[in-house]
Amino acid sequence: NPDFIDKERPMFKYIGTSILNILKGFNKIIELNSVSSAIDFYEKNGFVDLGTQFLRFRWTPEVKK
Fold first, then answer.
1. Residue 65 has pLDDT above 70, yes or no
2. What is the DSSP secondary-structure string of the chain?
3. Distance CA 12, CA 1 (A)
4. Hey, CA dihedral for 24, 37, 40, 43, is it positive or negative?
5. Whole-prediction pTM
6. 26 vs 3: CA distance, rounded Å
7. CA 5, CA 28: separation in Å to the nearest integer?
8. How far apart are CA 54 and CA 65, in angstroms?
9. What is the tens place of the pLDDT at every residue in 27-61?
10. Among 31, 22, 28, which residue's Cα sits nearest to residue 52?
């Protein structure tokens, strides 16, 4: 509902990133198919383009040294 959205700081900003972070906590690898409009979003969240004919990405946790 637009009446509940703060125009200065939308309350739903970063909800996609928050959901991904929760999923990362339960998975060692996440692979997904994407649409071209979401490429930047997935790359900003640590996913790597697998370079197939489809827009396919993979995330794996960083190894801490």
1. no
2. -GGG--SSS-TTTTHHHHHHHHHHHH-S-EEEE--GGGHHHHHHTT-EE--SSS-EEEE-PPPP-
3. 12
4. positive
5. 0.64
6. 35
7. 35
8. 33
9. 899 988 888 888 999 999 999 988 867 788 888 88
10. 31
φ/ψ bin of 51: left (φ > 0), alpha (ψ from -120 to 50), beta (otherwise): left
Q: Which residue has the tokens 């928050």?
A: 18
Strand partners, 56: 33
- Cα torsion angle, 14, 16, 19, 20, sign: negative
Token pair in block for residue 47:
């996913």
Joined tokens for residue 14? 């970063």
